[in-house]
Write the structure tokens for this entry.
Amino acid sequence: MPGILEQKRSDGLGKEYDQFCADVQGLYSTCLEYLEKWMTPMEEFSTFTWMDLSEPPEWNDVEACIKVLGEKGVVMDDVKCFDQVTNLKR
């Protein structure tokens, strides 16, 4: 069973079909450019992606977060944090 767009093309609307496809592709490209532009500042926070806990974190990932937070003036007890990560892995 042909799709709606293929049916329109076979109905003699090939030019309109091509224009629609070009417009959709342009919209898609514009959306991607927009997302890439506004996601770049968020890369600073990529260090924290392990926090979704989709899998147990590795200590070096947690340690990198402690370092970033320390640079921003947030003091953390890395020994307690290590203990918590170890318990989380269990």
User: Anything to note?
Assistant: The longest helix spans residues 14-39.
